Amino acid sequence: MIDSNIFLYEGLLIAFGIIVPVGLAIWWVVTRKEKITTVLAGAATWFVFAVLLEAIPKYFFFNPDTALGQTVLGNVVLFSAIGALLAGIFEETGRLVVFKTLLRNRTNRETAISHGIGHGGFEAMFLLVSASVSYLTYAVMINNGTFDTMVSQLEAQGTDVSSLVTLPEQMASITLGYCLLTMVERIFAMLLHVGLSIVVFNSVRRSKISLFFLAVLLHALFDVPAALYQAGVLNLYVTEAILVVYSVVFFVIVYKLFFKHNPVV
After folding, report:
1. Is the separation of the CB atoms in 118 and 35 below 8 Å?
2. Domain span holding position 193
3. What is the DSSP letter of 35?
4. Positive or negative, the Cα torsion across 209, 213, 214, 216?
5. What is the mean pLDDT of residues 193-211?
6. Close Cβ partners of 39 (under 8 Å, ≥ 6 residues apart)
7. How many structural domains does the chain have?
8. How far apart, in Å, are the Cα atoms of 213 and each of 42, 43, 138, 169?
């Protein structure tokens, strides 16, 4: 049986994943008189490039049923490097494409922040809500006894159920502290995305492709600790501490270099 607290914790994550990104976007658009379509363009950037397009190479590199996938998944360095680079390449390319096309006529510097809020905000919403809904669904199935039946049926069909077998134990370990830590992580990830949008925006407006490649590299570096955590190299708290410090330092530097003292009109 799954403790009833899991429903409260996941409900909090769903509420956070909706209220914070939407509230931030509304506050920014209203106070800065920005266009909501710029925020929506940022959201679309993440979904198209990170969810749809990035899934194609991920299938080849991380498929456990192929020799290549087994090699990558069995090597911490390859797993971390490829995962981080794919995220950096696809998401920053998405920013570059959108700033050159959909947002090409929006040259005020606030455009970069609007896009970043949409990009990072929708990522937070999508990841938190989808994961929490999945956990809640499985929690109900576990508590009413249908989860074991489903796992048995999938196993009989030859499906790999190793991740499902360990799911009840993983869910039982979820605490309020873990949920709060997840919220903190999403806040600073959003901060990073705003900073990256500022860098790529300046790459386009100043015709400096080097800034685009810098954004790819900096994004990839941000994703390395998370990949190392998934590989079991870093623990959760060390990983989160690294990500928070990295996001803050990165944003402060980017804001001062490309936004505050060097406005693009």
Report:
1. no
2. 5-260
3. -
4. positive
5. 97
6. 25, 28, 29, 114, 115, 117, 118, 121
7. 1
8. 19, 21, 41, 41
Residue with tokens 């905000």: 121
Residue 265 lies in a domain: no
Cβ atoms of 161 and 153 closer than 8 Å = no
**For 142-196, what is each residue's pLDDT tens digit?**
999 899 899 989 888 888 888 888 898 888 889 999 999 999 999 999 999 999 9
Structure tokens that stand for 27 in this block: 């506050």
- Residue 163 maps to a domain: yes
What is the distance of C-alpha 229 from the center of its chain? 15
Q: How many Cα atoms within 13 Å fall on the side-chain side of residue 189?
A: 26
Length in residues, the chain: 265
Q: Supply φ then ψ for residue 74, to 5 degrees.
A: -90, 0
The CB-side HSE value for 22 (13 A sphere, CA atoms) comes to 8
Q: Which residue has the tokens 């769903």?
A: 14
E strand map for 12-119: none
Helix (H, G, I), strand (E, B) or coil at 3: coil
Say which residue, 118 or 151, is predicted with more confidence.
Answer: 118
Name the average pLDDT for the chain.
94
